[in-house]
Each structure stands twice: as C-alpha cells, then as structure tokens.
Amino acid sequence: MSYEQIIFEVKENIGIIRLNRPEKKNAFSPKMDEELLDVMIRIEKDPEIRGVLFTGSGDSFSAGLDLDLSFLQTMEESDSKNFRRVMDPILEWSQKLYNLKRPTVAAVNGHTYGGGIVQVSICDVAIASDRAKFGLSEINFAHFPAGGTTWAVSHFLLPKHFEYLCLSGDRIDAEEAFRMGLVTKVVPHDQLEEEAWKMVKKLANKHPSAYKTAKTMCRMTRHMQYWEAIELEMAHIHENYFLSEGEMVKIALKQFKEKKIKTGTGETYKKEK
Fold this sequence. Notes:
single chain, alpha/beta, 2-enoyl-CoA Hydratase, Chain A, domain 1, 2 domains, four-stranded mixed sheet, 12 helices, 10 strands, globular, disordered C terminus
C-alpha cells in the first residue's frame, strides 16, 4: 500500500517509516496522522516485522504539528468534536509507537521542533545527525508544548533542562541535545542512516521475548521503590525463562562457558533441538 505523506517499506524484517512532507519540514497533518496510524496498525499485526526505524525526508525530522492545517483551525472554529477528530489520530499512533514491544530507533536527520520531539523521546534509541536542531517554540507564540510534549521532555530530561526548553523557546544543536539526554548519540550527517540501521538491526536480533521484558522493566522500575522493582524483576525472571524457551540457560550460559558469546535471537535453540 502506498501513502501520500509518508514512505513505508519493510527491509530485512525492519519497518522503515519516513515522514515525507519536506516542503513543510515534515509537520504532522491530519492526512499524515491517518497514514501513520494505518502503518502502526499494520506493524502491530505483523509479527515478521522485528523493529522500526523512524526518520524524515529532506532537511527535517519533524517540525511537529502543522498548525495551519489542524490546531489553529479547530481552535478558531471552537468545535470540540472537530478538535478531537484532528488530534486523536496523532495521539493514537504515537501511543502505538511508544507501546510497541519491538525495537524502535529514531534517525533524527534535521530540524526537530514541538511534537517532533515526542517521537524522538518515545523511541527506544535516538541517533541524531550533527546537523539536527531541536526546540520547543510554543512559548514564543503564547502557547505551551502539548500533545505529550511536556511529558516527553520531563520524562527523560532533568528538571532544569526540560524547563529551559519549555520556558525559553530556544533552539539547541545536536551536541546540546546529547548532553541533555534527549538523544542517544550524535553522528556525522552522512553516516546517520547507516548508524541508525546498524542499531535497529542489532536490537532486532535480540530475543524478542527478552527484549519485550527488558523494555517493560526499563519503563516500569524507574517509577518504583528499590524493593518494589526487585520483586517485579524476580517475577519476570520466571516469565522470561518460559517465553524465551529457556534460552538463557540452555544456550547463553553454554556459550558463556565456552567463551563463545552470541546474540540470542530465539532461533539458535530451535535449530539445535
């Protein structure tokens, strides 16, 4: 299936989503959001897709919400139903991306503003081009970062960092974004897609059940007290053993003893049985 405002392809079991409104800096329009929701539903239903690479076309990752086509119009109309009709798809596909139990990697190729920062934050890993720029400019036009944006930065950055971004409206470069913890690493622009591809392939080669459990633990335990996290982890040790068909004991520990460490994918044990 082809789309008008995004490009989607599956390569080597990796779903590649490329925002494709370069003339609008890949701002999210109602049409784009509908297409992204359709893609995320397709990915959810296809177990053969082992990971997702999310990026943009042209010189931008995403400038966030296209205010001309959506937000401003619905606000001026004062029509709450139309407002939800416009906003719900972007909230729904973003939640699906966040909740996906498979690897997600953002390749941040350029300008990233407003709601575009949400997608950078909710992907498991974010690799940025050294040309990338970031900013939450909403305060500059008498508004505030919304649609999950304040959650995204407050969830992953230190208070003085995310408050600076939200309250100043200033733009920062890729190195500053890395220093703040907004992105995982910064690479030369011409190496971005290669590095992002290596990363998503590396993560996709992990055992899918183990990856799902590890991702869940990373997100849940950071909100718990120490003893609560230990109890939850202990419970999931047993679950992970059964879901991974005992690969940790039957394959990984054997490899460790033989000094032949390999990435567990769930395929080795099936071949050896």
